[in-house]
Amino acid sequence: MSDLGHVLVLAGGLSYEREVSLRSGRRVSEVLRAAGVSVETRDTDASLVPSVLADRPSAVFVTLHGGAGEDGAIRSVLDLLSVPYVGAGSDACRIAFDKPTAKTMVRSVGLRTPESVTLPKETFHDLGASAVLGRIVERLGLPLFVKPSRGGSALGASIVRTAEDLPSAMVGCFAYGDTALIECYIEGVEVAVSVVDRGEGPVALPPVEIVPDDGVYDYAARYTAGRTEFFAPARLSPEVAAACAAMAVTAHTALGLRDISRTDLIVDAEGRPHFLEVNVAPGMTETSLLPMAAEAAGEDLGSLCRILLEQAAARGSA
C-alpha cells in the first residue's frame, strides 16, 4: 500500500457539471486504489468540513467541475483547513476559470487567441439586444462562437453561422451564466493539451485531437461514448504538435497553475494554434482527454495521480 495514508477525492458539487464530476471522482478513486492508495470519496455538503477536521486527509484530489470546483472557492476552504490538494491555488483558479481574464493573461505573454467581446446580460437589457448584437457581427464577423464566460463541458456554448442565429445563442448561453464570451470562430483541428508537473517543471502530454461526429464538440459529444472520435496523439506534424505543447505549457505558467491543467486549442488551416481556454480540474472520465493523453504517453493514470497527491502532501508538510 502507499505511504500516503488516506486521501480524499472530492466529487459532485452543485454545478451543472455535477454528473460529470461524479464520474471523474469514481475514475480517480478507482485508479488510485489500484495504485495502492487508501481513498475516501466525498461530495461537498455540510458534513465535509467536520469530517475533514475529525479525520484529516494527507491530501485531496479535487475532481469538481464548474462553479466552486474550479473558481477557487473549495480550494480556499481547504486552505483554511490547512489541507493540501492537487492543482492550482485558489487565486490562480479564479483567474483561469474566468475565460475573458484568462484570454487577456495569455495574450499578454504573446499567445494567439481569437478576438472576442465579453458582455453581461444586463448590457442587453439596458442598451437593447438588437443594436448590440448587430454591432458584434459587424465587428467580429461570422461565424462566431458563444459561450458562458465561466463554466465548462460546453454547456451553453454554440456556433453561430448567421446573424439571425445569434439571439438564440445568447439566450442559450445566459441559461448557464450571466456573462457571455463571444469570439471569432476559427475553423480547424480541435486539440486538447494536458500539462502535468511531477516536481521538475510543467511538461505537456501528447496532444489529443477531437473529431465529433456532427462537427460540434458539445456536452453530448464529450460524454457519450461513440459520439466523438479521438486521436492520441493528434494527427499533427511534429512542428505543429510542438507549437501546441509550448502554448499549453506557456498558458499553464502564465496563469500561475500548478500540478495539472488542460488547455484547449484550435489549429487553423495554416497550422497555427490558437488558445481557447484552460481547465484547472480536467475531466477524468472514461471519455475525458487527460486520461487519453496519459495513455498515449505510456503513463499509468493511477501512478500519475498518486505522484501528484504525494507532491501535494509534501507541500502540506513543508
Automatic annotation (TrEMBL):
Enzyme Commission number(s) of this protein: 6.3.2.4
Active-site annotation: E17, S153, S288
GO BP annotations, alphabetical order: cell wall organization; peptidoglycan biosynthetic process; regulation of cell shape
Leading EC class: ligase
Residues that, per the record, bind Mg(2+) 1: D264, E277
InterPro entries according to UniProt: ATP-grasp, ATP_grasp_subdomain_1, D_ala_D_ala, Dala_Dala_lig_C, PreATP-grasp_dom_sf
A GO cellular component annotation in the UniProt record: cytoplasm
Entry superkingdom: Bacteria
Cofactor: record remark: Binds 2 magnesium or manganese ions per subunit.
SUPFAM superfamilies membership: Glutathione synthetase ATP-binding domain-like, PreATP-grasp domain
Stretches assigned to coiled coil: none
Residues in ATP-grasp domain copies: 103-310
Pathway(s) where this gene product acts: Cell wall biogenesis; peptidoglycan biosynthesis
Molecular function as annotated in GO: ATP binding; D-alanine-D-alanine ligase activity; metal ion binding
Cofactor list: Mg(2+); Mn(2+)
Known catalytic reactions: 2 D-alanine + ATP = D-alanyl-D-alanine + ADP + phosphate + H(+)
Recorded family membership: Belongs to the D-alanine--D-alanine ligase family.
PANTHER family: D-ALANINE--D-ALANINE LIGASE (PTHR23132), D-ALANINE--D-ALANINE LIGASE B (PTHR23132:SF23)
NCBIfam families: PRK01372.1
Identification of the protein by name: D-alanine--D-alanine ligase
